[in-house]
Amino acid sequence: MAVVLRSWGSALVVLAAGALVAGISWSGGATVGAVLQFLLLAVLAGLISPLAFPRSVSAADAARAGKPIVYWRPGCQFCLRLRFSLFGSARRASWVNIWTDPEAAAAVRAVADGNETVPTVVAGGETRVNPSPHWVREQLADR
């Protein structure tokens, strides 16, 4: 349960704030504004939730798949930037949520000076912490 809250917590807070703001606007008579405010915050909640990323797999499954591995966590703006810059090629990599897989978190700490800095990408025998989207696209181009 704690892992679910950790992964979805930020998105749920934004969604609740959207409902609160929309409720206040609605009670003031601004129905169109209330709907637009709620929709805007609902979209933001979706972007910072795990829904914006390909299905997460475990670190062990990712290693067996033989594809590049992207270690990420929900709410990370750098992970989100990488995810959206990859467009349709994001599914060519294995995405591992470090908040749901202790082995993945340990792997990231091992290469990031003890920190859980994400995104961390393992591809072509090389590991990069917060790599440029261009480099990641090059690694996925051959897949």
Q: How would you sum up this structure in a few lines?
A:
The protein is of the alpha+beta class.
Q: What is the CA-atom radius of gyration, in angstroms?
A: 18 Å
Q: What is the class of the largest domain in the CATH system?
A: Alpha Beta
Write the CATH fold name of the largest domain. Glutaredoxin
Q: What distance lies between the first and last C-alpha atoms, to the nearest angstrom?
A: 35 Å
Oligomer: single chain
Proportion of residues in helical segments? 55-70%
Keywords:
143 residues; alpha+beta; Glutaredoxin; 2 domains; four-stranded mixed beta sheet; elongated
What does this structure look like?
The chain has about 140 residues and is α+β, with helices and mostly antiparallel strands. It folds into two domains: about 1-50; about 55-140, Glutaredoxin. The chain has six helices and four strands, in the order αααβαβαββα. The chain has a four-stranded mixed sheet with strand order 2-1-3-4, covered by helices on one side. Strand 3 (about 120-125) and strand 4 form a beta hairpin. The protein starts with a helix and ends with a helix. The mean pLDDT is about 85.
Topology:
Blueprint: H1 2-27, H2 31-48, H3 59-65, E1 69-72, H4 77-85, E2 94-97, H5 102-111, E3 120-123, E4 126-129, H6 133-141
Parallel strand pairs: 1-2
Antiparallel strand pairs: 1-3, 3-4
Helix pairs in contact: 1-2
